[in-house]
Structure formats: structure tokens, C-alpha cells
Amino acid sequence: MLWKLVSANKSPTEVVSYSDFLQMIDDKEVLSSNIYLEANSANIHALLRGSRKYVQTTIATSELPEITARLKDGGAKIEISEAKNGDWTLILLNAAPLILLVGFCLFLMRQMKGNAKRALVLRAATARTGIGYDLHRLEEGRPLIVGGIELPFDKGPVGHSDGDVLAHALCDALLGAAGLGDIGTHFPDTDPKWKGANSMLFLEHAKKLLDEKQFAIEHVDAVVIMEKPKLGPHFPKMREALAKALSVGVEKIHLKAKTNEGVDAIGRGEAIAAHVVATLTSR
Ligand code: MG
Question: How far, in Å, is the centroid of ligand 1 from the Cα of 130?
Fold first, then answer.
């Protein structure tokens, strides 16, 4: 027990064998002793003469009469008592830091587990993804507008508005992620109001709808497919235009260009298409 390692006055206590303790008694080294009785044994704490040193030993109850007799013969003062309830207090006091540490660790583990679960539930509940696709035929003599930028080319998309496939697919991806329908729902091509309209207006309106529903745009990834001209050199300006319309940083807009390897209408230069994936989160 822990109390055996500390004497009553907090002096270090040396644990000695029964035979060594008997020798100390016979040599009259023991000045006083405290004997604590337990069920089948007794613990003896003894103060040695001429020093502040304590020794401690444990004996069987049957050896108690002999020990007390020898102590008396050696002139040692004897106090006998039942094992103290205070021993348990001392044990608890000694063990308190360990108990507190273990308890704190268990508490932390439980909190971390709970937080991880909550984070997973939250992430699953708030992240939303939408997909958008658009294709327009190309005709000679029309302006080629992609991502809000007019590119020098002899063909452009045929459409009710400016025919910006990237903006239209992006609009559909955003509306889809928010569960707000599609571009046709909000800007029907039967409405003359939208004839020849700048598609950046569609994106600005979609952003307004997202704001009303407390959605934030986390990321946009897009692929524009056309045979020519090359789109890559124009991406910086397109990203700026799209980011401005959506009031987000350009780092949230990612664009890629593909050709169709000469296959089908796009490959023959008769059409342009775009695929967009948008990720939103709830605020
Ligand atoms: Mg369209």
C-alpha cells in the first residue's frame, strides 16, 4: 500500500525484513513504534534512535506478542491501532493525479469521437454537387462567346441568348446542386426578354438565388469541347469573367478544354459543348 512508503511526518521510510527489524530491536535502535493491525497481519512503523529515520516491516499477527515484548524490553514506546481509515484517504490522495489523468483522457477520447461523428454528419448534410451540360450548333458569322469572353473565330453558337455553352452548363450545375431547377426554368428561351442576352446575367441571377438559400459556391470544374479555336489561352479571362459574375475568387473556377478528335458534330466543327460540375455548401 502507498501509505507504507511515507511515514507520519513525511520522512522517507525504509522497508526492512522481519529478521533485520528484530535485530534492530535487540540492538535497542528502536525509539518508538506504531503498529497498525490488519486482518491477518500487522504493519509496524518504527522511529530509530539518534536519527529521524523510519523503518517499516510487516509481520504475521501471530508474531505480534513476541515483537511487542521485545520492543518493551528494548525500551521502545509502542502504540497499537487498527489500520487507519486514513490509509485509504492517503491512497486516494496519492492516486488522485493518476485518476484525474485517466478520467481526462477518457473524456477527451469521448469528445473526439463525438466531434468526428458530428463532422461527418455535418459534411454529408451540407455538401451538395450539381452537374450541367450544354451544346450549341455553330454557324458562320456569329460571335463565339465562351465563358463570357468573345473569341476571334469565324463561327459562333446559335441560340436564343448569346449561346455561351460554358455559362449555361455552369448555371445548370449551380441550380441543380441547390435543387432550384434548371436554366430553362428561370430563363425560358420562349421569353423575348432573353433574346441575345449576355449569359453572365444568368449566372448573376443564379448566384442571387443561391445566396437566398444560404448556399456558398465551393468549387466549379468545367470541360469545354470544341475542335477549334484553342481555348486554353483564353481561360484566364474566362475564369475572371465567370468569377466576377458569381462573386467568388478565380481559384474556385477550374476550366479544361478538349477536342472531339474529329468525331461527330463537334469533331467536324459544327458544335460546341460544355460539361460542368459545381460543389456548394450550406452556410
Ligand atoms: Mg444553352
Answer: 17
pLDDT at 7 over 60: no
Sort 96 into a burial class: Cβ within 10 Å, 0-12 / 13-18 / 19+: exposed
What spacing in Å lies between the alpha carbon of 227 and ligand 1's midpoint?
18
CATH of the domain at 29: 3.30.720.210
Which domain does 170 fall in, by range? 125-282
Cα 262 to averaged position of ligand 1 atoms, centre (Å): 22
Assess if residue 106 is contained within a domain. Answer: no
Integer Cα distance of 19 and 231 in angstroms = 98
Report whether pLDDT(276) > 90. yes
Residue at grid coordinates 518504527: 46
Ligand 1 centroid to Cα of residue 64, in Å, is 103
Handedness of CA 157, 163, 165, 166 (dihedral sign): positive
**Ligand 1 center from residue 234 Cα (angstroms):** 20
On whether both 133 and 227 belong to a single domain, the answer is yes
Ligand 1 centre distance from Cα of residue 187 (Å): 10
Considering the domain architecture, whether residues 139 and 77 belong to the same structural domain is answered as no
In this predicted model, what pLDDT tens digit does every residue of 202-211 receive, in sequence order? Answer: 999 999 999 9
Q: How confident is the model over 100-128, as pLDDT tens digits?
A: 899 898 999 988 888 877 776 655 558 99
